[in-house]
Amino acid sequence: MNHIFSILTGTGAKRNLTGKLGMAVHGCAALVALAVIYTTTIVYVDLYAMMVVFLSAMLALLFLNVSAGPKGRKDRPSILDWGLVLASLAVGIYFFIESQRIVERITLLFPLETPDLLAASVLLALTIEATRRTVGFGLTSVVLVFVVYNLWGHGLPGALGFREVSYNHFLDIMMFTSDGLFGVPLRVAATYAFLFVMFGTFLSKAGGAEFFYNLSSALAGRRTGGPAKIAVISSGLYGTMSGSPTSDVVTTGSVTIPIMQRLGYSKPLSGSVEVAASTGGSLLPPVMGSAAFIMAEYTGIEYREIAIAGIVPALLYFLCVYAQVHLRSQKLGLKGLSKEETPPLRGTLKNGGLFILPLVALSAALLMGYSPTYVAVVATAVVLLVSMVRRSTRMGPKAIWNALALTTLRMVSVVAACAAAGLVIGGISMTGLGGKFADLVYLLAGNSAFLALLISAVLAIILGMGMPTPSAFILAAVLVGPTLLGMDFSVLQTNMFILYFAVLSAMTPPVAVAAFAASAIADARPLEIATGAVKLAITAFIVPFAFVYGEGLLMVGNWTEIAVSCLSAVVGVLLLSIAVEGFWRQRLSTLPRLGFGLAGLLFITPSWWAVALAVVFVTLAIVGTPHLRLHRQKLLA
Fold first, then answer.
1. What end-to-end distance do the CA atoms of the chain give, in Å?
2. Boundaries of each TRAP C4-dicarboxylate transport system permease DctM subunit domain copy (predicted)?
3. Where are the domains of the chain?
C-alpha cells in the first residue's frame, strides 16, 4: 500500500540507459533536436502537425527515461513503460495523419469520430501520467481537479456552476484546437524554450560554464566572503542561460557549496546563498527562462521589450544578495580565497574570454529586433565558432551530437509541465472560471489595488510551490491578470509582476524546490535553506510592487524618471540589506535597523515625498548609532 502511495504522489527516477538501448534513445533525442531546428528555422510546417509529432516523441522519450515511481528500475524500462511508449507513438502517428482534417474541421460543429475520441482519450491519459512522473503530485492534482470540474462542475451552485460540458465537447476543445493541450505553453516549449535550452547546453559543454565560474572567482574570490560572492556571480550568469533555478543549483552548487563550507560558512548559509543566486538567474536578461517566452507569446509583447524591462529589477535583485553576502561575511568574520586558490583575471580572460561573445551576440540580436527563435540559433552558432578557436574547447561531431541529445532530454520535464498547463488553461477558458476568479479578487480587494497585487503575488507563489515556473506563471496570468489589468496597470507591469512571484516560488517555503535540490549538496534542512534564501533576496519581494506603481524600473518613461527611479532604488536596496543583516561596520541595535529598513522601503517607492522622508529616517538611524555618528563627524572634519 505504501509503495502504491509513493508511486502516485512521487516523481519517477531518472534512468541511465546504457548499451544499445541507451545509444538508440540518445540518437532519437538528438534527432528530435535536429527536427526542432529544421522546422523552426528552415522550412515552414503546419504548427498543429509539428506540435503533435513533437509531443509524441517527447512523451516516448520520457517514458523510456523516467520510471513510474521513485523506486523504479534505473537500468531499463518496464513492460508498462514500453506499452506507454508505443501508445505515445501510435497517437502521434494518428494525429499527424489526420492533422489536415483536424485543422480544417469546424470545432464543435463537425462531430468527432470514434478513432478521434479514442486517440484523444489516450493522449490525455499519457499527458497526465507524464506530468505525474516528472513534476509530481502538485501539478498533476491541479490538472485532475480541473478535468473533474470541467466534466461535472455544472452541478455546482452559484457562480461556480456553468453550462454542462460533455466529454466529447471537452476533448474537442482540449485536443483538437490550440486552446488546450496544444496551446501557448506547449508551443513555446517546442520552439523558443527548446532553442534557448540548446544554447545554454552548447555553451556549457564548450566550456562556457567553467569560464564564468573562473571569471567570478577572479573578480570576487579574494574579497571578504569570496566563495559566496563567486556563487552569486557564477550562478547568476549560468542561471540566465539555463533558466531553471533547480538545475542551476545542481550544476553550480555542486562546486560553490563545498567551497563555502570549507572556508567556514555554515551548511544552511552555503545552501541559502546558492539558492538565492540560482533563483535570480531565471530573472536575469537576456534569457530569463522559459516563463519569459511564454509571457511574450501570451501577451504579444516583444521578447526584446520584456528583456529590457527585466534588466534593472534583476540587477537590484543581485545587488541585494551580493550586499547581504558581504555584510554577513563581515559580521561572521569570513574571509576570501587565497591567492593560490583564485585564477588570475588576465589568464582567465585570455583562455576563455571569447565565451562572452555568444552572450553579446544574443543581446545584440534581441536589441536589433530579431525573433527569439533566430536569436537562439545565432547565439548557438556563435558558441560553436568560439569553441573552434582552441583545441581544448573545440566541439567535434560527437560532442555536438551529445549536446543535441542532452538538450532534448533536459526538455522532457518542461514539455510535460507545459502540456499539463495547457490542459488547465483550456479548462479555465471553457468554464469561464477566469472571469469568475477575477470577480472573487475584486470582492476580496475592493477598490484597493495594493490588496489585489498582494492576492496575485500570494497566488503565484502558491501555484509555483506545486509546479514549474512556466506553469505557475501562465495559470496565475490567466486567473489574476485580468483583475490587475482592470485596475489600470499595463500589460507589461501586470505580467512582469506575476512572472517575478512565479519565479520566486522556487525558493519560497514550505515547498521550495530549489532549496530541496540544494539540501542534498549542503547536507542541511530544506526549510532552513529556503528561509535563509528568502532573507538574502528580500528585495525581490518588494521591487515588483515598486515597478507596478512606477514604470521607471522597467525602463519605461523619459530618461530623467528612469534615472531617478533606478538611483533611488539602488540606495533603497543597500539600506534594506543593512537593515536585514543588522550590520554596518558593527552590529546594529533594533531602532537603527528599523530606521534603515523604513528608509530603504521609502527609497524604493517612486515619489519625492517618500525620498524626503527616507532621508529623515537615515539621519535618525545614523544619529542613533554611536560608531556611525563618530564616522560622520570625522568625515565632516
1. 77
2. 124-549
3. 2-136, 192-415, 557-637
